[in-house]
C-alpha cells in the first residue's frame, strides 16, 4: 500500500547580474506505507456513532439514511404525515456529534375555517386550533335537532372529514287520545317546538287524569304524557252514628258521577241536620257534606248556602215551620221551580239545585268542525239553559262523522254532546 506525500517548495535566492531569480523545486515521492523507514502513521476519521437527532413530528429522509455517518456528513429531515415544515431541517456530523445546520420545525397542517351550519354552531372538541388532528362538534340551536348521523368533524390532510351536519326545526307528533278528551290548540300543520296543547273533559261525568297541558320540548318529545278522561267516582264516608245511608252498593264499590245517597235518622225522635240527599259531582266530590242526626230543636240558624243561587231574604234565626225561598243566578234553572227550605226541629229541610247552563263557543266548535246553524247576532258564544236545544251544522263542505250524535242537541245540567264533522 502506498501513500502520496506532498513536499513544499525549496526556495533559493541567487544573485545573478543584479536580477532576482526564484527557483522552486517540487518533489513528489511515493513511499511504501509498510516500510518502517518512512516514520509516518495514518490518523482515524471522525464518525457519529450515536443515535440520530430526534426532531419532533419529523423523520430522516430516505436519501440521508446510511449505515455509518462520517465527519461532515449531513442528514436531512422531512415532516411526518399531517405536518408541514416551517423552514428546512438538517444536521451535520462534527467531531462525533450532531450539530444543527438548519433548525426548522414541523407544525400541524392547518385546515380552513369550518363551515357554519344553519340553525346551529360548532365548538372545538379536541385540540386548541383548526389544525391536523383537531376535532369540532356541532350543536343545534334551541328549538332545532340534529338530523345528520354524526355531529363530529376532524381536520385531516385533505380538509375536514364528514359532511356538514344539518339541523332541522324540532316538531312533535300528537299522541293518540281515548276519544273522551278534547284537545285544544292543534295547528293545521307541524307542531313546532314550544307549542302548547290544552286538554279538557267536556263530559262532567269524566275527570282529567294527568296534566291539563303539554308542551313540545327538545328532541321532539312532549314534556308530559297526554292525559285521559276517566270516570268521576266518589267514595262513601265511614258510617255515621245514628244515620242510615240508602244507596250504598252491595259490594261497597266506588260510586260514579250522578250517584245519589239518601239519609235518615235511625232514631225516629231525632232530626236530620244537613241534606237528606247528596249527589256524586265533578272532581269526585259529594254535592253536600254528609248529615248528622240530633235531638230536635225549636229554632234554625241562617238558611244554608245554595251553589249558584241565594235566598230572597235572610235572618239569623228562624222558628220551626218557617220557610225561605231560593232563586238562581242568570241562566241557571231552579229545581224544583218553586223551591223552599223549611226549618224543622232546628234543621233546614228541602233539596234544592240550580241546574247549570251549557256554554258553546267558537274554539270548542272548531275542535269538532261545526258551527251554529242559527248563529246568535253579534256574538260567537251561546249560553243554553238546562233543557234548551241547539242546532249545529258542519263547516265548509264537511259531513257528519260516522257514529257522531245528531246536529240538534239538548243541554242537560251544563253538559251537551257535540256532533263531529269530517
Automatic annotation (TrEMBL):
CDD domains: CCP (cd00033). InterPro entries: ComplSys_Reg/VirEntry_Med, Sushi/SCR/CCP_sf, Sushi_SCR_CCP_dom. Its main location: virion. PROSITE patterns: SUSHI. It comes from the Eukaryota. SUPFAM superfamilies: Complement control module/SCR domain. Keywords: Disulfide bond, Signal, Sushi. It is found in: Virion. Residues 1-36 form the signal peptide. Gene3D superfamilies: Complement Module, domain 1 (2.10.70.10). Residues 46-108, 109-169, 170-231, 232-295, 298-356 form the Sushi domain. Disulfide bonds join 79-106, 140-167, 300-343. PANTHER family: COMPLEMENT FACTOR H-RELATED. This is Sushi domain-containing protein. The gene is LOC112214838.
